[in-house]
Write a structure and sequence with these properties.
This protein is an alpha/beta fold. The protein contains two helices and eight strands. The chain is globular. The termini are far apart.
Length: 107
């Protein structure tokens, strides 16, 4: 069975290196990744790199993923009180999934 991880980024000002380096390291191990945000399409990092969000955070079914990673950067503040994102993290943890966050992401 193939493993799959959702990487959650802000619509803008996420930390570019936290997304792209983390994604590369995960994929190097053979684990599939998807990038999710609160909008589909192009999301621009603090350093100007563009990532394509192919899934909305609200559409993540944690049962189809082995883990989730919240990327930091100032944009991550959009998730501080986002009930959907908070419930996703809680549900993932309750189901024994890997829940990770980088920099200010854990806040």
């Amino acid at each position: 069975m193939n493993k799959k991880v959702a990487i959650i980024i802000a619509e803008e000002t996420f930390r570019d290196e936290e997304l792209f380096e983390t994604q590369a390291a995960i994929e190097k191990t053979g684990i599939e990744t998807i990038v999710a945000s609160t909008k589909l399409g192009d999301c621009v990092g603090k350093l100007g790199k563009v990532a394509e969000a192919t899934m909305l955070v609200k559409d993540i079914n944690i049962d189809k993923f082995d883990g989730i990673v919240f990327v930091g950067g100032l944009g991550a503040m959009q998730y501080y009180e986002d009930k959907i994102a908070l419930n996703l993290a809680r549900n993932a943890n309750a189901k024994g999934k890997v829940v990770a966050a980088i920099c200010i992401g854990p806040r």
